[in-house]
Amino acid sequence: MRPDSRLSRMLHALIHMDRLERPATSETLAQMLNTNAVVVRRTMAGLRQHGLVRSEKGHGGGWVLARPLEAVSLLDIYQALGEPQLFAIGPSVDNPDCLVEQAVNKALEHSLAEARTLLLSRLAQVSLGDLSRQFEEKLRSGAWTLPALPPTGGDTPV
For a disulfide at 30, which of 37, 57, 121, 157, Cβ 3.0-4.6 Å? Predict the structure, then answer.
């Protein structure tokens, strides 16, 4: 099973968007994320519905943050993405009448519920501003260098 990287990819894109001095087109974000602009537009539309980004139409338009980075938690992004499955493991449904399977499933479901609660709590405690500050510290220390951003395109968000 391929891991779902939408959360980390959107965190990446949103922090870059904050650093831009202009709206980010879907094409710019798609190039940055090595994906298709249609996928970016679909994903950004979900973030827009949750009040995290907004679109600016017309020449020079694109996607911009609707809130400061400090006001957006990782949990906000996770929820805006439709709460993707957190874990690849889960209960078996091969033999629901089997008492052993029932015992195993009960133990797994309890443990996974605890892990989910803890993870979501941690996501709520971290803001995009926290991640941006970590990036800035690494950048100032010379540990990272910035790649060149692609040129601005004429994207009109949906």
Answer: 37
